[in-house]
Amino acid sequence: MNDNLLKKIFDDVICYEEEAIEIRSSIEDEVKKLMTPYVSKIDEKEKEAFEDMCYDISYYAELGGFRLGMKYAVKILTEIIKK
User: Which helix (H) or strand (E) holds 30?
Assistant: First the structure.
């Protein structure tokens, strides 16, 4: 399966779905919780860099999960059609 096509589907369609938005909101809440002990110890620039890194990690985890799920869905569908 074409990974570029899956990324395009994820970026252009899936990430705007209500469930994806809810997941992203819970990730943002979790990032804020994780950052709480450090906020007073770092400056604004470092805080933004840390947040950006966390959001990048979560984006690639979501994208990877989507790709993996789609690949398994296609495999299962292929097996069902063969039978």
Answer: helix 18-39
CA 33 to chain centre: 18
Write the pLDDT tens digit of every residue in 29-73.
998 898 899 888 999 999 899 989 999 999 999 999 999 999 999
Residues with Cβ within 8 Å of residue 47, at least 6 apart in sequence: 35, 38, 39
Q: How many CA atoms lie within 13 A of 30 on its CB side?
A: 10
d(C-alpha 37, C-alpha 48), whole Å: 15
Query: Degrees (nearest 5) of the Cα angle 5, 17, 3?
Result: 15
Cα separation, 27 vs 16, whole angstroms: 15
| Phi, psi for residue 74 in degrees, rounded to 5 | -65, -40
